[in-house]
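QA checklist item 7 of 12: single-chain prediction sanity check.
[x] sequence parsed
[x] length recorded as 215
[x] structure emitted
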Amino acid sequence: MREHALAALTRAGMQIAAPYEEHLVTKENESLRTSRHAEEIRRRLDALVKVEIFAGLTPEELRIVADHLDYAPFLQGDTITRQGAVAHWLYLIVSGEADVWIEVPGSDRVHLSTLSSGSVFGEMGMMTGEPRRATVTARGDVECYRLDKVGFQGVLQSRPDIADQISGVLVERSAGLELLREKIRVEARPPAAHGDILRRIRDFFALGTGTKGQV
């Protein structure tokens, strides 16, 4: 229970106060803090360059996104996202595994797949605001980075043409999820069309219908 509480506090950006004596022993100088921050940014960038929906971002745009990532650890059995919930977070797994489930009314939930390091989920919630389509739980201890709408909004509004590329990726991922649902005979909505997802991204981020550079 204590470990789960500490993980939840970490996801909320809160730290447990340490004794004064410990601070004296571990006091860091500015150079060490700068070095650690640079190493953390490199770790985030290494994770981001593997994410397909960010493939069209410039190095500077990736750095902006990296600065907005939040560290989100989960312990075995934790629910990371819940089907039907509305939360504008995208999650990127950097270590560990997570299980994807479909909640079926009147019966047990059905296991869809297992996600491993480098996997991304929750992108439809971040990009369109739609409710979660599946529940994701931590199979073991999992380290994630998460990004919300606000953290990506500046990049997207400065270059709204990115939305077109991202919507194409989301169409493929949406279709893949629906194929999995069909295989286990779970009733599902038809995969969304490219134009529909692009419209929802533009509406959610207030991009309008202009061309590159127009919002």
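[x] summary fact logged: The chain has a mean pLDDT of 84.
[ ] second reviewer sign-off
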